[in-house]
Amino acid sequence: MPTPPLAGGTAGPAALRPLLDTVLTALEQGATRRGGPLPAGGPDNATSRMRTAGPLIPDTGTGAENALRTLVTALTEGAADPAHPHCAAHLHTPPLALAAAADLAASALNPSMDSWDQAPAASALEADLTAALATEIYPHATTPDAVITTGGTEANQLALLLARERHGPVQTICAANTHHSITRATWLLGLPAPVVVPAPTGVMDLTALAEALTRHQHPLLVTATAGTTDTGQIDPLDAVADLCATHGAELHIDAAYGGPLLFSPTHQHTLHGLDRAQSVTLDLHKLGWQPAPASLLAVPDHHHLDPLHHHAPYLNADDDTEAGLPDLLGRSLRTTRRPDALKIAVTLQALGRTGLADLIDRTLATAHQLADLITQHPTLDLYQRPTISTVLFRPTGATDHTVATIRRTLLNRGHAVLGRAEAKGHRWLKATLLNPHTTPHDLHTLINHVTTVTDDLTEGSTPR
């Protein structure tokens, strides 16, 4: 077998072109065979069908085209595809084609973002992009900055780490609606377990927060949420920031979901007070339509990131730094990492503010259309009007067990991917709408799928 060609260099594109044609054909054929948002038949069927692709480590290789065709087709056929309008369970976005294309370039060039000599242009692009996005979050700060992370979990952990490095073992105060990564971060960092205040309406209770701030000793770090995982609600950020200022506490805001609303003149008011936090998490692989990962942690002053600096002579020798080579190790806790800035930068430049705002506004409007359909339906109950693009609903009078069974039946039939959430003492079906191409017909069909399964279960028939 000849030595396989490389993706980079002047010969790389010629080697990639026929392989990409194979991949694109396999993606198309796999999606056609699947015919829905996910494969029917549940986990056993998906696993067995994937294994028909053959041994993964054969004695003799099958060749590039055959391996790509076989495995990409099988993976696509067995995928939960967020590009399908009925795949709406999680904050699992359908990536834009232009962002995926940019990600291909990043993979082919393979810059490693841990030293300048591995990523000369990519390091400059990342520095400019993170500064620009940090300025969106902190428009009045003199030297805001951000670091790119693998997701909201890593960004939240970094936020707590930086607070610990500033103040020692901080006591975190969060609400019951807070993402689980906050509790995990305190465990990983050896910090006290969070003090959890109630969120009876889905957002942080301000009276309970004030009591907690009064009762606990400093240093204190409040974590608020702009876009909760279960309901998409946004804590009263300004009021939370006021209480933090009154009690001398720091504030971190997890805006992994809701942060991109900054780009929408129609919806950015919902984030008022965001720039009062000492750190902010923002994901663009949610309401930003990027292939994962595409996340960041922003701070109002670049010096807040100083604790991340680390010395490894083979990557950032002192004399190299003094000679002007940028030191990249302080840009992450990771060493080898991808140039995720490229796909984000391509998207922002291609769409501009107005293009991104249109995607956001279109997606949020679709969520309200679904809420309207649910409100008008005689056998469905709506939890509340959507704050962002998450819609909770349930069949009228259904038990929590029935709601869970409806969801699993839809999965097994391959008809819809809906999430589940607990709110107001009940279990709800959760539609997290992130597909800007979703049509009213798609929404009607989704509701019909839910009501058909509900009727089947009510009539005692075996779920199909």
From TrEMBL:
Keyword Transferase attributed: yes
InterPro entries: PyrdxlP-dep_de-COase (IPR002129), PyrdxlP-dep_Trfase (IPR015424), PyrdxlP-dep_Trfase_major (IPR015421), PyrdxlP-dep_Trfase_small (IPR015422)
Domain of life: Bacteria
Entries under Gene3D superfamilies matching the protein: 3.90.1150.170, Aspartate Aminotransferase, domain 1, Type I PLP-dependent aspartate aminotransferase-like (Major domain)
A Gene Ontology cellular-component term: cytoplasm
Record-listed N6-(pyridoxal phosphate)lysine modification sites: 286
GO biological process, one term: carboxylic acid metabolic process
Keywords annotated in UniProt: Aminotransferase, Decarboxylase, Lyase, Pyridoxal phosphate, Transferase
Any GO MF annotation of the entry: aromatic-L-amino-acid decarboxylase activity
Signal peptide: none
Ranges for region Disordered: 30-63
Cofactor requirements of the protein: pyridoxal 5'-phosphate
Stated family: Belongs to the group II decarboxylase family.
The protein, known as: Aminotransferase class V-fold PLP-dependent enzyme
Organism of this sequence: Streptomyces finlayi
